[in-house]
Amino acid sequence: MELAYIPSPSRGVLYLGPVPLRGYAFCIIIGVFVAVWLGNKRWIARGGRAGTVADIAVWAVPFGLLGGRLYHVITDYELYFSEGRDWVDAFKIWEGGLGIWGAIALGALGAWIGCRRRGIPLPAYADAVAPGIAFAQAIGRWGNWFNQELYGRRTDVPWALEITSSADGRMPGTYHPTFLYESLWCIGVALLVIWADRRFKLGRGRAFALYVAAYCSGRAWIEYMRVDDAHHILGLRLNVWTALIVFLLAVAYLVVSAKKRPGREAVVEPGAASVGGEADGEVEGGTEADAGKAESEKAEADASDAEDGKEPSDKAESATKKT
Fold first, then answer.
1. Segments in the chain below pLDDT 70
2. pLDDT tens digits, residue range 120-136?
3. Half-sphere exposure of 69 (CA within 13 A, CB side)
């Protein structure tokens, strides 16, 4: 009886004439578009301008790709700089090899530069794009399926991944599809962050910290299942240690930030409320601040009329019209 399994694609690249169309690259590109689209919707809902997320992504995405590649090359340097290897392969990003830890670290640096140029607080921007990043990771992991890489131990479960390639030391067979496990986990993380943000009104970087903590908790056990070569420290893979340390840092930030700076930012993008008219806290005919000012002027006018023995309606009406 032949077991059920997830087939691997016969090849990860198609050619449109001389132009190669690589599945790995397509997954990364689609993921970026989803992250920017969702981040833009969340940013507008928080009171920001449409298009701001994309403008800052112009800085964040290239930095993120560079950071992801650097992390991979540094932690797996023997794949590119050991005897018999060609160091030029370190630049072939389309063949796979992006470390999420480096991508987030340098991507955050790029986002900080973009936010600083726009006068926007980085934590607020990070909160807006956090679920989109998780969805982007979920989509990007399918690039590993196209490249037949990053799978787990041998298994005969019905959802096992069939590996057919024997290149780079691969052994054909059926394995745990760790790329699929991580993809599904990332979708769950994205939904968790969206729910928690709506339920608890997370702000000041806490939605992003929740994303980081939730992702790391899943990455640790998924990484433990993988069988590809990796550096080990005290018997654990390097990425398992990284996930554990980053998880603790994210949880610590959540706790400390919630105590020291509760609530969320009142303004995420200077001037956006007066331009877009959709910022949080707006009311018909102006903002809550305008309404409060009108009420104050109305009260002063009523008090003045009462002293003069006049009806309060005239000046009150005048004060209201000022708004």
1. 1-4, 273-323
2. 999 999 999 999 999 99
3. 16
